[in-house]
Model the fold of this input.
Amino acid sequence: MAKYRRIILKLSGEALANGNGCFDAKRVDQAADVIARLVEKGVQPGVVIGGGNIWRGRFSEAMDPVNADQMGMLATIINALCVEDALLRRGCPARAFTAQQMDRFAKLYTAREAGDVLNRGGVALLAGGSGNPFFTTDTAAALRAAELKADAVFKGTTVEGVYDCDPRKNPDAKLIRDITYQRAIELGLKVMDIAAFQMCMDNHVPVIRVFSMENLENVLKVADGDDMGTIVHA
Done:
């Protein structure tokens, strides 16, 4: 039996691309397979998807940052529809929700309706970020975790967990296996936004699990209780 009942999985847009343009069909199917297998384990997954495979910010400093962030929100919705399609083709119930009114494409998010999908054994794909500019999808994941009373946020990275400095720039960087929300904020750790840590701390989200998602199977291992990566907690 899985360790966690309800999780928010923060899935990067890049995880759907695998370095092959905007989407890699095999990688999308792999992501959908892992999410569906979470459901089969009895886990209720809400999935917050980034948009970095499609849009990564302003073309230049002259570009309106609000417009740029709104374009990023639209990118996350494209990704959610892509994963929804893959899940439905696999036979796994799934529903894409958006933080913006967009009824022709997806359901407007409310915590009650997303929770109903999870309680019925489906996957809630939570797109459009928080619905506001200047907030990242990390903060959106923390917000949805608080609203949906999740047991954990799963944050995938390209490295093994949270380090005291960037391991891609400093070979002497040390992996931090266990840290509190308050200490992560004090140290200004960059693996998630400070706003996301603060949101989880203030709203009593029990834990953030930070681990490498280069191998998507790691999601299942962490759900089963593997202690890989970093545990961030109250």
About this structure: The chain has a mean pLDDT of 95. DSSP finds seven helices and eleven strands in the chain. The two ends are 25 Å apart (CA to CA). Residues 6-233 form a domain with the Carbamate kinase fold (CATH 3.40.1160.10).
